[in-house]
Amino acid sequence: MASTAPPILPISNSQTVPSAAPSSVESQTPIATPAFRAFINQISETVRNGLSQRRPWAELADRSALSKPESISDASVRIRKNYSYFKVNYLTVATAIVGFSLVTHPFSLVFLLCLLASWLFLYLFRPSDQPIVILGRTFSDRETLGCLILFSIFVIFLTDVGSVLVSAMMVGVALICAHGAFRAPEDLFLDEQEPAATGFLSFLGGAASSTAPAVIAARG
């Protein structure tokens, strides 16, 4: 008597093909990338280091040290010495003036924030494997850069942003020069060997050099 073969049962393969969900996890938004977080941390650290080198504000506002300069050359020497000593305080005051001007001009502030956000999220910290697609059209990096340059020209020169920034910086420079010219620096302990770029002066160079690898990694 011939034995019948047992029926074959279907077996499900547990090792299925991975879905496309991980790709959505890997494609993080620019604000969530490690490069952007490193950029923000570097800026915060640079600002803290700069502010830690500021002079006492009471020393800056010492009315007993104010006197009229004897000549233009004396005023220029005073400005140079006072700026070398109070540079962080001066740049803090100038930054506060620019910030106050932008707050009092909300439309200019919105335009400037949109411009900065566009450069950060659409170019600097956008991964190269995530092209910009608008209405079904894919924009290359060169086209994105060109659009951002045109947008920057429009915001700075064709709106009030440029005039607000220039006016605020002129007011800040005028106040710094006036204080530096009338503040007698004889009681200041100046360090002639102090490097030319310290405090806030090294912000652009230090922050740019430190965050350049992060930007390259985000663009890679």
Automatic annotation (TrEMBL):
Provide the alphabetized UniProt keywords: Membrane, Transmembrane, Transmembrane helix, Transport
Q: Where are the membrane-spanning stretches? A: 85-103, 109-125, 145-176, 196-218
Subcellular localization is given as: Endomembrane system; Membrane
Q: Which GO terms describe its biological process?
A: vesicle-mediated transport
- Residue ranges for the region (Disordered) are 1-26
Q: Does the keyword Chaperone apply?
A: no
Name a single GO cellular component. endoplasmic reticulum
Q: From start to end residue, where is composition biased (Polar residues)?
A: 11-26
Q: State the membrane topology.
A: Multi-pass membrane protein
Q: What is its main location?
A: membrane
Outline what the protein does: May be involved in both secretory and endocytic intracellular trafficking in the endosomal/prevacuolar compartments.
Q: State the family it belongs to.
A: Belongs to the PRA1 family.
Protein name (database record): PRA1 family protein
Q: Which organism is it from?
A: Microthlaspi erraticum
Query: What is the phylogenetic placement of the source species in the record?
Result: Eukaryota, Viridiplantae, Streptophyta, Embryophyta, Tracheophyta
